[in-house]
From TrEMBL:
Keywords: Dioxygenase, Iron, Metal-binding, Oxidoreductase. Pfam families: CDO_I. This is Cysteine dioxygenase type I. GO terms for molecular function: ferrous iron binding; oxidoreductase activity, acting on single donors with incorporation of molecular oxygen, incorporation of two atoms of oxygen. SUPFAM superfamilies: RmlC-like cupins (SSF51182). It comes from Klenkia soli. It comes from the Bacteria. The lineage of its organism: Bacteria, Bacillati, Actinomycetota, Actinomycetes, Geodermatophilales.
Length: 186
């Protein structure tokens, strides 16, 4: 496996100039997170790893406000469960933008973005049920259930998620350590 030192990262899309696409994904993620009747009976928890399930936009559309249908048409939607201690490595979402909303429990997100010199900027926040994060392409984060109760979240990606790069941080900065490709690695 090769390691690649990265060029400066694109910042998180949290400013007013951000594309409307991630904001639309956020609206969709929140709308789905609060509609527990659409997914609650599907959720499973797995001791061995996080549980994930793709949601079908066509099935969801009749239950959602029509203003979200355009966003829904282009989106890939995942429902995830997280037992205490389960989480992701540090990763991006390739060229996909998107959003995730916490529907149950609390998840801790660590965000890594461009810093000064070779030192990335890092921030960590606990996201309780009802919280949402949206992001543009190449957003790098790690999400973990650090608390004691199971958590559930809804993730929306547009365009569809095709790969995720994984990272570590060392003295040279943020270093890519792997790439997982849809249809090959998951
Ligand atoms: Fe992610």
């Amino acid at each position: 496996m090769t390691s690649t030192a990265l060029s400066p990262l694109a910042p998180a899309r949290t400013d007013a100039a951000a594309s409307t696409a991630p904001a639309g994904a956020a609206a969709l993620a929140v709308a789905l997170a609060i509609r527990t009747d659409l997914w609650a009976d599907r959720v499973e928890y797995r001791e061995e790893s996080r549980w994930t399930s793709l949601l079908d936009p066509a099935e969801l559309a009749p239950a959602l406000d029509p203003s979200l249908h355009a966003e829904l048409h282009d989106a890939q939607i995942w429902l995830l469960s997280w037992l205490p201690g389960q989480g992701t490595p540090l990763h991006d979402h390739g060229s996909s933008a998107g959003a995730f909303a916490v529907a149950r429990g609390t998840l801790t997100e660590r965000v890594v973005s461009r810093g000064t010199g070779s030192t990335p900027h890092q921030s960590t926040a606990d996201l309780a049920a009802g919280r949402v994060r949206f992001f543009g392409p190449h957003y790098v984060h790690q999400v973990v259930n650090t608390l004691h109760d199971p958590a559930v979240s809804v993730h929306v990606y547009a365009p569809r998620l095709s790969l995720m790069n994984t990272y570590r941080i060392d003295d040279s900065g943020l270093v890519r350590i792997g790439t997982e490709r849809a249809g090959v690695d998951w």
